[in-house]
Amino acid sequence: MLRSILLFGLITLQMFAMAMLPTELSDSGIIPKPVSVIPATGIFTLTEKSAIIVPDKSVELMQIGQYLVDKLNPATGFGMLVKSSTGAKSTGNIYLSLSPGDEQLGNEGYQLTINSDVVSLIANKPAGLFNGIQTIRQLFPARIEMASKQQGPWEIPAGTIRDYPEYSFRGVMLDVARHFFQVNDVKRYIDLMVAYKMNVMHLHLADDQGWRIEIKKWPKLTEIGGSTQVDGGKGGFYTQEQYTEIVKYAAERYIMIIPEIDMPGHTNAALASYSELNCNEKATELYTGIKVGFSTLCTGKEITYQFITDVFSEIAALTPGPFLHIGGDESHATKIEDYIPFVNRVQEIVSGLGKQVIGWDEIALSTLKPNTFVQFWAKADNALKGVKQGAKVIMSPAANAYLDMQYDATTKLGLHWAGYIEVDKGYNWDPATLVPGINKENILGIEAPLWSETITNIDELEYMVFPRLPGYAEIGWSASSTRNWDEYKTRLGRHDDRFKALQIDYYPSKLVPWSVPLER
Ligand code: ACM
Questions:
Q1: Per the CATH hierarchy, to which homologous superfamily does domain 22-163 belong?
Q2: Predicted confidence (pLDDT) per residue in 11-22, tens digit
Q3: Of 20, 242, 316, 377, which has the highest C-beta tally within 10 A?
Q4: Domain ranges of the chain
């Protein structure tokens, strides 16, 4: 009798202990997967007395601290502040500081130490702190992401995370030409991508169906070329002030903006705006369909190069990043003997503006300048021609990385010319082994493009982007030797409550074991 009472007591105690056991730090389901997570005993708790502490009042550190406060205050309701102090650490605070000299962490890595008293985040560079903050967000319960006050407690299990990326370039592309997206939509996309530590947004600003950026010397580009979109909607464009607002919003989140003006093909919007850009001096009709490969700038005319110089001069002046993207894809209406000298000359124009060229893989048919980058999307042969010329490659294989490809035959949005891309197919590839002859040292990074022929608004964008984006983020950030789909899918499944808290309209793929409840 005594024995069974003791046994009963022991089991009850064990059950109680299990129910109370916090999630271990190593079981926190972070995406992208960190380089190293070492759990320790203890739990950190954020309270109404907590603050974010930076060591000095440098504008940049205060801004990073404010970003974290803005993420944590709505759901906790705490009204925390960013303060500067170099004094002894006090319980309940989160400390952010730059601590240069840890080479392994590089420009974007961070080290996060959590104990039952404080959270300490250090990095060589501000971008590393910003990435570490994204990890801190994921360590709190998902309801931390909600816009209104939620129940605590706000706890993180103790331990240490050391983390840095595999590739320095981890991007998305948004086609604002086929359908226009307002500034607020672009900002929303930026907010979502940074949560998964992506750091590049490529904006496809001009195509057959629309010209989307104000060029003061060529105002009809937006007056006429910006006036419509696929299916004949009213289109739109960014004024230079609005583009600058996007660039600034991105820079505050450590995102580089890469502007693309596609040429010599994909140029009908420009050709419809200015008759003199056409070989026959006649402006084309505006185009609202989704065919490709029918338009070309007149490569033999001097005014074409004046036009390109003017356009890229204005855009370069508004773009702090080093790259201008010249497109160069699917120029089927341009003879190859015209295409090659055209691309060579445009490279000269761009480098004359102090910028470096990125172009789709076809540009490798020309003679690449030493600082030109090739974006692989379709033809491995082209990309290999780039590699042979010493160019680095951005990996955007359409069959693996195009966010506008349908998940399967039942997906209502998107296209499938490059195949269906279910969440596993989007995740299960390695940039460094996909194309024999393109190795890790040839690769700058990865980019997942979203073409918008069928994508008309931010909800539709979210449905195509999520849940594939966290997978592309992980391919760019985490070493391929540490990745595998079966393990990843369980981590991804635990992000559905974060998607819900952030009001993301994601595709609930049947391949992923979604966790459903908001409580963890
Ligand atoms: C492309 O998809 N035409 C680059």
A1: Chitobiase/beta-hexosaminidase domain 2-like (3.30.379.10)
A2: 444 444 444 445
A3: 377
A4: 22-163, 169-482
